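Colleagues,

For the teaching module next term, I've prepared a clean inverse folding example: a structure given as C-alpha cells, and then the sequence designed for it. I'd like students to try predicting residues themselves before seeing the answer, so please don't circulate the second half yet.
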C-alpha cells in the first residue's frame, strides 16, 4: 500500500513492529534543539552519523535532510530572537565549518535519488519512486534553508546551484527548486567576499531564475512531549555518547512521510511583534513617558528589526487576518498621528513656520514600518498580488459589506481604510516638522511607497492620498527641493487623473454610464444606487484635484506672483527679477517644467471645459489667476495662447451652461460662482486683449464697460448655440471626436511603425541585458515623442518586445537544432538521457557565449529533449552515415516544430484600440477592423483556421486511401484529388495552394509510413529466415564492418565514413535484405545497426531481440504519427505571413503606398 502523504500525530510502528514516533519533523526539530542548546561541539559527532544514516535508503535520507534543515532553521530562530547582527556571520561561526560536508552530502543525495526516482517508474516500483521523490524534495528544501545564509560562492563551488537548476524543468520538483533560488537572490554579498568572486557566482543564477513559493510548519505538541525524557541527561557531557546512540536507534525506526518540510519562524515573529507593539502603545500612553523618547526607542528598535526581516515580508499579508496584529499596528499609528497633531498650530494654512516634536527621534524608526505597510496594502489591488491572496482579503477590498460577508472580512475592510487614512495623515503631518524634508522624509522611499501602485488604486484611495498626504507635502516642501520631490510626487498623480479619471468622465458624458475603478462588492444593491455612489466618488476626486491646484496657487508658494498686478508689471523689465519670480513660484515651476506642464494644462482644460462640475471649476479658479499672472509676467506666447484659446472660451461656456452636480452639500451659490468666473474672465481678457493699455493705477472705466459688453455678447452667442436641437448637438460632438481621431491617426501610425522598426533592429543580447524601461528610454532618446504619448509607446513596446522575444527565441531554437543535427556523436551515454548526455553536448547546454543571447540554458535543455524525442521516432539508431543522409529531413522537422509553435502561441504585434484615449477607442477599433478587412488580414485568419480544420480532417486518415491511390498515378496528383469530388463542400473555400501544401505533406508522411512497414517486414523476414547461407553471410558482413570500425561511432579517432569499402558493404547488405525496395540509404544503414545490436543480445533469441530493437521503435512511430502530423503544422504562405507580421504586410505597405 502507498505511504500516507501526511504527518500523523499518533505513534506508529517500525518495520520490526516496535512503537515509534509518527512524525519526522518533531524528531528533526528535537535533534536541532539539542545541537544548538549544547554548542557546536556536538555537531562533530552528529554530522558523520547523519552521512552514514543517509546511505541506508531513501527513507533515512529524507530524515537526514529534515534534521539538517532543522539545524539551520533553529539556528536562525535563535539568532532572530536573542542576537543582533548579520545572520550569515553569526551562523557561520558555528555551522559554517561543517558546510563542505553538508553541501557535498546534499549534492550527493540530489544526484542519487533524482536518478532513482526516474528509474523506479514501473507499477511495481511506484512506491519506491514516490519515496525517492520525497527525498529529493526534502533535499531541495534543505538546500533552500542553507541558501538563506550560506554565501552564494560556496553554493556554486560545491555544485548545489547547478543541481537545483537542473530540476527546474521537472514539474514535481519545480516549486522546491525555486525556493532555493529565491533565497539566493534575497541574500546580500558578505563583506569578506570579493566582488570579483561574488558576481560570477550570482550571474550564474540569472538564466535559471523563475517564480518562487514557500511553505509553513506547525510543531506537534504530543510528539514533543514524547521526546522530553532524554533531554535531562544531555546536561551532562559524559552522557552524550550513550544518548546519541539511543537517539540514532530511534531515528532509524521513524516511518516515512512525504509531507514538505518548512519552519515555524513566522509564528514566533508575529507574536513577538504584537507584544512589542502593544507594549509601545501602553507605555507611550503615560504622560511622563511621552517626554522620554529614549525609553520608547528601546521598544521600537527591536520592532523595526522584525519588519526588516525577509521572513516577515514574506508572511506580512497573512498577518492582515490576525486581529491582534491589526489592532496593535493601528494603535501605534493613531498614537503617532495624535502626537503630531498636538504640535501643529490650530489656525494655519500649512505654509507657516515649522514646528518641533519630542518624538522627532522616534519617527525615523516608525516611518519605514508605516511606508512598508502602506506599500503592501496598496499592492493588494494589483493584479499580481490579488491573484494569490486569501478570500477574506479579497472580499475586504470591496467598499460595502455583502449579506454573506463574515465578521473577519468586515473587520479587515475597516482596518484597511483606517490604516490608509491614518498612514497618509502621519506622512502629511510629518511634513510640518522642522527639518522634515532634510532629516526625516526620503523622497524615494515616501514617493515609492505612496505612488508605486497608484495605477491600481480606486478613486477613494487617490482622494485620501491627495487630501492627507500630497497636499501637506506640497505645502511644506522647500522651494530648493521642488525638483527632488515634485517630479516624483505630482507626475504619477497627474497621469492617473489624465487617464483613469478622464476615462470615467468620458463614460459619463459620452455614454451616460458611471464607470469607476472602485469595487462596491454588494451585488444586492440596485444599479441606481451604485451609479450614484460611483458618480459621487468621481466628483470627490475631481474636486480634490481642484483643491490640489488651489494649494499650488497659494500666495506663500508663489513668491513674486502673489504681488499686486501693478508691482508685477514694474518688475517685468529686468530679466533677473523675472528669473527670481519664477524660481519662487510653484505655478511657474510646474508650467515651465517639460515633464509636467502638458499634464497641468490638460487637466485645467478638462476641469473648465469637458468636466461639468461647477464646484471643482470654482475651486480651481485661483490656479488660473496665477497662470494668467505668469503669462503676463513672462510674455509667453504658449501661455497667452492657452489663456485665449482655452480659459476664455471655457469660462464663457461655464457662465452659460447649468453645471452638473452630485447632490453634495458642497455647492457654491450661482451668484457667487458667476462672480468668480466673471472676474477670472476679466483677468484673462486683460492678459490677451490689450496688454499695452495696462499701466499703473486703476483700470479705466471704459475698459471695464467694454469688457462687460463683450462678455454679454459672447455669452449670448454660446446661448444661441446651446438652443440647437439635441440631434445637431450630438452630430457636432461626434464630428469633433472623429476629427480628433483623424488628426491623431498619422501620429499613431508613425509611433507604431517606429516601435516596430526600433525593436527589429535591436541586437539579440539587448533583450537580456536591459530592462523594458531602459529600452523604452533608449527609444524616447532617439524619437521625438510628445509627453502625452509616452504611455502609448510604453504599451506598444510591451507588446512588441514580447512578440519579438518569442520570435528570436524560435529562431535561435532552430539554429540550436542545426548545431545538434550537425553533431556527429551519440547524444546519450549508457541509455540514460537525463544524466548521460555526451560531454560535448553538455558544453552546448552550458554555453553562455553571445551565440545564444535569447536562448537561456533551460531553453537549450528543452530543445535538446525535444530533439532526442524526435530521434527516438525518426532516427532510433545513431550513425554518422545515417545522420548525413537524414540531415535534410531533420532540418525540415526542426523548422516545422520551432516556427509552428511561434505561430500558434505568440500574439503578433499589431495596432490595438486600447492605445487610444477612451472616447477615441470606438473609432480606432472601426478603423483597425476596416483596415484588416480591406488588406486581407481577416481573410488570412479565416483561411488559416479553415486550413487547420483541413489538416485535422487529414489526420483522421479519411483521405489516406485516395492519397495513396492517386499518388502513384501519372499526371497532376493534387488536381486529381481536388477535382474528383473527394473533399466535398466543407473545404471548397480553402485556398487551392494551402490544400495542395497539406496534401503534399500528408503524402510524404504516408510515404514514410510505407517505408517503416517495408523496413519492419523485410527485417522480420531476415530474422525468420532459416537459411544458414543467408544468416552466415549477414553475420560475416557484420563482422567485416566491425573489423573496419564501422560501429565505433563514439570514439575520438577520425574515421573516413565515405571510404569505398563501407559503400560496398552497405550496398551488399541492401541487395541481401532490401533488394528492389529503393529505400533511402539511411534505412539500409539502420538495418545494419539494428542487426548488429540484435546479434549482440546473446541472452535473447533473435526473434525476441527483433521485437525490442525493431518492433518497439516501429510501434512508437505508428502510435505518435498523428500527433507528429499536427505538431509540425508550419507552412510558408502569404496568409501565414500576414498573421505573423501584420505591421509589415499591412500597415507598412499602406504607408509606403501613401508616400508614393
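(Answer key — instructors only)
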Amino acid at each position: 500500500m502507498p505511504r500516507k502523504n501526511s504527518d500523523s500525530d499518533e505513534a506508529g510502528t517500525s518495520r520490526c513492529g516496535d512503537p515509534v514516533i509518527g512524525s519526522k519533523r518533531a524528531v528533526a526539530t528535537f535533534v536541532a534543539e539539542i545541537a544548538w542548546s549544547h554548542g557546536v561541539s556536538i555537531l562533530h559527532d552528529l554530522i558523520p552519523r547523519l552521512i552514514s544514516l543517509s546511505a541506508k535508503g531513501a527513507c533515512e535520507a529524507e530524515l537526514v535532510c529534515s534534521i539538517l534543515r532543522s539545524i539551520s532553521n533553529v539556528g536562525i530562530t535563535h539568532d532572530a530572537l536573542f542576537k543582533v547582527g548579520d545572520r550569515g556571520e553569526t551562523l557561520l561561526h558555528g555551522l559554517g565549518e561543517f558546510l563542505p560536508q553538508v553541501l557535498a552530502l546534499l549534492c550527493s543525495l540530489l544526484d542519487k535519488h533524482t536518478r532513482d526516482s526516474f528509474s523506479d517508474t514501473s507499477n511495481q516500483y511506484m512506491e519506491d519512486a514516490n519515496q525517492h521523490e520525497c527525498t529529493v524534495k526534502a533535499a531541495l528544501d534543505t538546500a533552500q534553508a542553507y541558501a538563506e545564509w550560506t554565501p552564494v560562492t560556496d553554493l556554486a563551488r560545491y555544485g548545489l546551484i547547478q543541481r537545483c537548476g537542473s530540476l527546474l524543468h521537472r514539474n514535481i520538483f519545480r516549486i522546491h527548486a525555486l525556493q532555493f533560488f529565491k533565497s539566493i537572490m534575497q541574500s546580500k554579498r558578505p563583506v569578506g567576499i570579493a566582488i570579483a568572486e561574488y558576481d560570477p557566482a550570482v550571474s550564474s543564477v540569472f538564466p535559471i531564475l523563475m517564480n518562487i513559493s514557500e511553505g509553513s510548519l506547525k510543531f506537534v505538541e504530543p510528539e514533543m512531549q514524547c521526546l522530553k525524557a532524554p533531554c535531562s541527561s544531555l546536561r551532562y557531557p559524559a552522557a552524550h555518547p550513550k544518548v546519541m546512540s539511543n537517539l540514532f536507534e530511534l531515528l532509524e525506526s521513524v516511518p516515512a512521510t512525504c509531507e514538505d518540510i518548512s519552519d515555524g519562524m513566522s509564528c514566533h515573529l508575529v507574536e513577538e511583534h504584537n507584544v512589542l507593539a502593544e507594549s509601545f502603545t501602553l507605555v507611550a500612553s503615560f504622560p511622563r513617558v511621552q517626554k522620554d523618547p529614549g525609553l520608547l526607542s528601546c521598544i521600537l528598535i527591536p520592532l523595526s528589526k522584525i519588519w526588516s526581516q525577509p521572513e516577515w515580508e514574506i508572511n506580512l499579508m497573512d498577518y492582515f487576518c490576525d486581529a491582534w496584529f491589526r489592532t496593535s499596528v493601528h494603535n501605534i499609528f493613531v498614537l503617532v498621528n495624535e502626537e503630531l497633531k498636538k504640535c501643529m498650530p490650530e489656525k494655519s494654512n500649512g505654509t507657516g513656520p515649522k514646528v518641533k516634536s519630542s518624538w522627532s527621534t522616534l519617527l525615523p524608526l516608525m516611518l519605514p514600518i508605516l511606508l512598508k505597510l502602506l506599500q503592501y496594502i496598496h499592492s493588494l489591488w494589483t493584479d499580481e498580488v490579488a491573484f494569490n491572496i486569501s478570500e477574506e482579503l479579497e472580499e475586504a477590498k470591496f467598499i460595502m459589506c455583502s449579506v454573506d460577508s463574515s465578521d473577519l472580512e468586515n473587520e479587515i475592510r475597516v482596518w484597511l481604510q483606517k490604516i490608509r487614512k491614518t498612514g497618509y495623515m502621519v506622512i502629511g503631518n510629518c511634513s510640518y516638522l522642522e527639518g522634515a524634508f532634510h532629516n526625516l522624509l526620503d523622497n524615494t522611499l515616501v514617493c515609492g511607497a505612496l505612488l508605486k501602485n497608484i495605477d491600481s488604486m480606486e478613486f477613494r484611495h487617490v482622494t485620501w492620498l491627495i487630501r492627507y498626504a500630497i497636499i501637506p507635502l506640497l505645502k511644506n516642501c522647500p522651494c530648493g527641493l521642488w525638483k527632488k520631490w515634485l517630479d516624483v510626487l505630482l507626475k504619477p498623480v497627474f497621469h492617473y487623473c489624465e487617464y483613469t479619471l478622464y476615462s470615467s468622465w468620458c463614460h459619463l458624458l459620452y455614454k451616460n454610464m458611471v464607470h469607476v475603478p472602485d469595487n462596491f462588492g454588494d451585488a444586492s444593491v440596485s444599479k441606481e444606487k451604485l451609479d450614484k455612489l460611483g458618480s459621487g466618488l468621481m466628483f470627490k476626486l475631481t474636486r480634490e484635484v481642484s483643491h490640489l491646484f488651489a494649494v499650488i496657487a497659494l500666495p506663500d508658494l508663489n513668491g513674486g506672483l502673489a504681488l499686486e498686478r501693478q508691482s508685477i508689471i514694474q518688475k517685468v523689465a529686468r530679466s533677473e527679477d523675472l528669473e527670481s519670480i519664477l524660481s519662487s513660484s510653484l505655478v511657474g515651476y510646474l508650467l515651465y517644467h517639460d515633464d509636467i506642464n502638458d499634464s497641468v494644462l490638460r487637466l485645467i482644460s478638462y476641469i473648465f471645459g469637458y468636466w461639468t462640475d461647477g464646484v471643482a471649476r470654482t475651486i480651481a479658479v485661483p490656479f488660473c489667476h496665477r497662470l494668467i499672472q505668469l503669462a503676463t509676467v513672462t510674455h509667453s506666447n504658449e501661455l497667452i495662447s492657452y489663456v485665449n484659446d482655452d480659459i476664455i472660451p471655457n469660462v464663457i461656456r461655464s457662465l452659460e451652461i447649468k453645471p452638473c452636480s452630485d447632490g453634495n452639500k458642497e455647492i457654491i451659490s450661482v451668484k457667487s460662482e458667476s462672480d468668480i468666473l466673471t472676474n477670472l474672465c476679466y483677468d484673462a481678457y486683460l492678459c490677451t486683449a490689450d496688454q499695452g493699455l495696462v499701466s499703473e493705477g486703476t483700470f479705466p472705466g471704459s475698459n471695464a464697460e467694454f469688457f462687460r459688453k463683450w462678455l454679454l455678447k459672447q455669452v449670448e452667442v454660446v446661448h444661441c448655440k446651446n438652443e440647437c436641437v439635441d440631434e445637431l448637438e450630438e452630430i457636432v460632438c461626434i464630428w469633433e471626436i472623429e476629427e480628433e481621431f483623424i488628426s491623431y491617426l498619422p501620429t499613431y501610425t508613425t509611433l507604431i511603425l517606429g516601435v516596430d522598426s526600433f525593436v527589429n533592429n535591436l541586437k539579440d543580447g539587448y533583450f537580456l541585458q536591459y530592462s523594458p524601461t531602459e529600452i523604452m528610454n533608449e527609444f524616447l532618446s532617439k524619437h521625438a515623442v510628445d509627453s502625452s504619448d509616452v504611455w502609448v509607446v510604453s504599451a506598444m513596446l510591451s507588446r512588441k518586445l514580447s512578440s519579438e522575444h518569442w520570435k528570436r527565441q524560435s529562431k535561435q531554437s532552430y539554429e540550436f537544432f542545426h548545431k545538434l543535427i550537425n553533431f556527429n556523436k551519440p547524444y546519450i551515454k549508457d541509455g540514460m538521457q537525463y544524466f548521460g548526455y555526451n560531454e560535448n553536448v553538455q558544453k552546448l547546454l552550458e554555453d553562455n557565449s553571445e551565440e545564444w543571447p535569447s536562448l537561456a540554458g533551460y531553453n537549450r535543455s528543452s530543445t535538446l529533449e525535444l530533439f532526442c524525442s524526435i530521434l527516438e521516432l525518426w532516427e532510433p539508431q545513431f550513425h554518422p552515415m545515417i545522420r548525413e543522409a537524414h540531415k535534410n529531413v531533420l532540418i525540415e522537422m526542426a523548422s516545422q516544430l520551432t516556427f509552428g509553435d511561434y505561430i500558434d502561441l505568440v500574439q503578433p504585434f499589431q495596432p490595438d484600440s486600447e492605445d487610444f484615449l477612451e472616447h477615441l477607442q470606438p473609432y480606432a477599433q472601426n478603423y483597425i477592423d476596416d483596415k484588416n478587412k480591406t488588406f486581407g488580414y481577416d481573410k488570412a485568419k479565416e483561411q488559416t483556421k479553415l486550413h487547420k480544420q483541413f489538416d485535422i480532417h487529414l489526420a483522421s486518415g479519411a483521405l489516406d486511401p485516395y492519397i495513396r491511390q492517386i499518388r502513384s498515378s501519372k499526371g497532376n496528383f493534387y488536381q486529381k484529388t481536388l477535382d474528383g469530388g473527394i473533399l466535398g463542400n466543407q473545404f471548397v473555400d480553402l485556398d487551392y495552394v494551402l490544400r495542395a501544401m497539406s496534401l503534399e505533406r500528408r503524402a510524404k508522411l504516408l510515404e514514410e509510413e510505407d517505408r517503416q512497414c517495408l523496413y519492419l517486414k523485410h527485417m522480420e523476414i531476415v530474422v525468420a529466415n532459416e537459411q544458414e547461407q543467408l544468416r552466415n553471410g549477414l553475420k560475416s558482413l557484420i563482422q567485416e564492418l566491425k573489423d573496419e570500425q564501422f560501429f565505433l561511432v563514439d570514439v575520438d579517432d577520425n574515421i573516413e565514413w565515405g571510404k569505398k569499402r563501407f559503400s560496398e558493404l552497405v550496398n551488399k547488405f541492401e541487395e541481401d535484405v532490401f533488394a528492389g525496395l529503393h529505400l533511402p540509404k539511411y534505412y539500409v544503414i539502420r538495418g545494419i545497426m539494428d542487426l548488429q545490436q540484435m546479434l549482440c543480445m546473446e541472452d535473447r533469441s533473435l526473434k525476441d531481440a527483433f521485437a525490442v530493437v525493431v518492433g518497439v521503435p516501429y510501434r512508437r512511430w505508428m502510435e505518435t504519427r498523428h500527433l507528429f502530423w499536427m505538431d509540425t503544422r508550419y507552412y510558408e504562405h502569404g496568409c501565414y505571413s500576414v498573421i505573423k507580421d501584420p505591421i509589415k504586410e499591412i500597415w507598412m505597405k499602406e504607408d509606403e503606398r501613401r508616400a508614393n
